[in-house]
Design goal:
disordered N terminus, single chain, five-stranded parallel beta sheet, 238 residues, binds BIS(adenosine)-5'-pentaphosphate, alpha/beta, two-stranded antiparallel sheet, binds magnesium ion, 9 helices, globular
């Protein structure tokens, strides 16, 4: 399910007209933030910054942050704002973020949003942030979460129901055995959804209120959604 040639061209054309600047991908667990971020990276050449991936990297390396985050993530709760903000601050200092970046799964609380807004306002000549909220219904989300498989080497995302690898259980790109995330169970998904409704839904409303905001239907082919995001960002950047 990669982008069709037409969508890629459409995206490239749209992408070439603008400096993408900071883009926020918001939405519930399993809505497709990571999948869309990877498509947009190909179109715009700016990095994906996924706080979930960064935290999982810390868990895998058994860092001090990883040891704190592991249990919280396993329960489906949110890692404390101060730790996540500090991690994002360090990532944003890297030079590949100069022309923009795609924040995937951040900000997730109003405190994180306020920290990010302050940081962007303090930046000398930065473009304003554009926020895109992806929508998918609950039953579809559950199917996406329980069916998801990841390549631990290249991070490609599959789904045994809707987006399977060519050979069962093995990554198409590098042949690595696919893994399932520890928090991709129905029980933890329910807790992640509770955290989303309580803490992250207000963040979506915050960015809706700021105006540079778009909502996209995430229950469509991956390429169609990506083209819709490109169109929305181009419109909101004008
Ligand atoms: P995180 O890793 O961000 O998880 P999440 O928000 O729950 O989102 P997911 O990664 O599960 O879903 P996604 O939207 O990326 O969907 P994907 O593209 O993979 O966070 C994990 C944990 O880390 C949190 O619970 C928290 O503890 C902690 N954390 C992270 N950030 C934090 C923060 N800022 N503050 C505090 N704590 C934080 O797609 C899902 C599946 O659907 C895949 O199988 C894919 O193939 C399939 N799919 C995608 N698009 C389509 C489509 N269009 N059609 C059919 N299938 C599709
Ligand atoms: Mg993700």
């Amino acid at each position: 399910m990669s982008l069709s040639a037409t969508s890629v061209e459409k995206g490239r054309e749209a992408g070439s007209k603008l400096a993408p600047g900071p883009i926020l991908l918001l939405g519930a667990p399993g809505v497709g933030k990571g999948t869309q971020a990877k498509e947009l990276v190909k179109l715009w050449g700016i990095p994906q910054i996924s706080t979930g991936d960064l935290l999982r990297g810390n868990v895998a390396r058994d860092t001090q942050l990883g040891r704190v985050a592991k249990e919280i993530m396993g329960r489906g709760e949110l890692v404390p704002d101060s730790l996540v903000n500090e991690m994002v601050a360090a990532r944003l200092l890297e030079p590949d973020t100069a022309n923009g970046y795609i924040l995937d799964g951040f900000p997730r609380t109003l405190a994180q949003a306020s920290w990010l807004d302050g940081r962007l306002a303090a930046a000398a000549q930065g473009l304003p942030v554009v926020a895109v909220s992806i929508q998918v219904n609950y039953n579809q989300l559950l199917r996406r979460i329980t069916g998801r498989r990841n390549c631990p080497v290249c991070q490609r995302i599959y789904n045994i129901y809707g987006n399977p690898p060519q050979k069962d259980g093995v990554c198409d790109v590098d042949g690595t055995p696919l893994v399932q995330r520890a928090d991709d169970t129905e029980k933890v998904f329910e807790e992640r959804m509770r955290a989303y409704e309580a803490k992250t839904a207000p963040v979506v409303e915050h960015y809706r209120g700021l105006g540079r905001f778009a909502e996209v239907d995430g229950d469509r082919p991956i390429a169609t959604i990506a083209a819709g995001i490109v169109d929305a960002v181009e419109r909101l950047r004008q």
